[in-house]
Amino acid sequence: MYLDQISFNNFRCLVDGKLKFDRYFNLIYGKNGQGKTSLIEAVHFLATGKSFRTKKVKEIRKYNLNRLIVFGKYRHKDLSENIIAIDVNEDKKDFYIDREKNKYINYVGLLNIISFIPEDIELIIGNPGIRRNFFNYEISQAKKEYLQSIVNFEKILKVRNKLIKEKKTGEEIYKIYNEKFIEEGLNIVLNRREFIKKLSILLNLNYRKLFDENSELKLKYDCFLGDVEKKTREELKEKFEILCRRKSEREKFLGYSLLGPQKDDFVFELNGKNAKAYSSQGEKKSIIFSLKISEIDILIKEKKEYPIFIMDDIASYFDEVRKKSILSYFVNKKIQCFITSTEDLGIEGKKFIVEKGKIINE
Question: Family per UniProt (predicted)?
């Protein structure tokens, strides 16, 4: 799978236009502050409906304009073509698949994308919510039904919290929603467990191959139910029900849910130590890059499609030796890449120079 072309109107500082991309390597380069990151942000937004720089839609529209449109064509390995587009008016997003308006849940995962950006360091040093949001999206790209479970669970959690706050936990309606809360929560836990188990194995292999063959890197699933690795669904359900009963009085006092997968976390361990506290900045960057490579491997295995990869400012991340190793990896893997840089990286493909928001195909 690869992105063949993109069109954008009113996207940040970029001059409106249409670009056709190389099947494999696309370098976006120029001086800082010219719009390089905005271009790969547009690619990311087209694929995901989200920016990797902000949660506020108004910040990605040109100043004083209410509407922005991003349109693209992507091709599969058999060269069949699909068209996707996002139309943003004020804060409302409309998603289109082959010119038909669609729900976001149908849009996610059509054009799979993996990004590597400076802000990704927050996946190690940031709060658990950052990691949950990240893994929720990555699992959703691979498994559409997981996204549906997340959507369902958030609705159920909202109602459950309302009933707790209103002191209605003794009513039949609460019992119904509590059962749904447990069932959908277990769906999320089991999907997370399966995904993290696969990802952790690949993560360690890729870290050793790319950065340090003598190290051991693990990704652990810190579930609110405790150790879930070898438990059956029925065993986990029983434990979930017990916890619900134990926490019920405290929940009534506080007025909200105290347990559930919305409390989960994910922990990176390098050589037996928590990377957040003990790893150097260089090691943290290498862990994140290995994570992204491992996501690519999982998507290829699960969906039999190659995702596209975007990387912002490669020179700020790695020294010359590691940079060459990383670029060589992508050349050999034959994955479509979008990489920004302040200089020409000397790799065959399409090169785009960005100057004051204007994109020139070299």
Answer: Belongs to the RecF family.
Q: Can you tell me the distance from the alpha carbon of 103 to that of 144, in angstroms, rounded to the nearest whole number?
A: 13
- Determine the pLDDT at residue 203: 97
Round to whole Å and give the CA distance between 241 and 249. Answer: 14
Give the pLDDT score at 64.
82
pLDDT tens track for 263-303:
999 999 999 999 999 999 989 989 999 999 999 999 998 88
Indicate whether 51 and 164 sit together in one domain. no
Alpha helices in 71-210 (DSSP H): 104-107, 122-125, 128-142, 144-165, 172-210
H or E segment at 69?
A: strand 67-75
Which pTM value belongs to this model?
0.90
Q: What is the pLDDT of residue 329?
A: 82
Residues 133 and 108 in one domain: no
Looking at the domain assignment, is residue 311 inside a domain?
A: yes
Looking at residue 124, its amino acid is I
What sign does the dihedral 316-317-321-326 (CA atoms) show? negative
Distance CA 114, CA 142 (A): 12
Which of 303, 324, 349 delimits the end of a domain?
303
**Which segments are annotated as binding site for ATP?**
30-37
Residue 315 has a pLDDT of 73
The H-or-E segment that residue 89 falls in is strand 81-89
Residue with tokens 């506290």: 277
Reading the block at residue 299, the tokens are 């998507």
Binding site per annotation, positions? 30-37
Reduced to 3 DSSP states, what percent helix, strand and coil does the chain have, rounded to the nearest 5?
A: 50, 25, 30
Q: What value does the CA radius of gyration of the chain take, rounded to a whole number of Å?
A: 22
**Which stretches of the chain score pLDDT less than 70?**
none
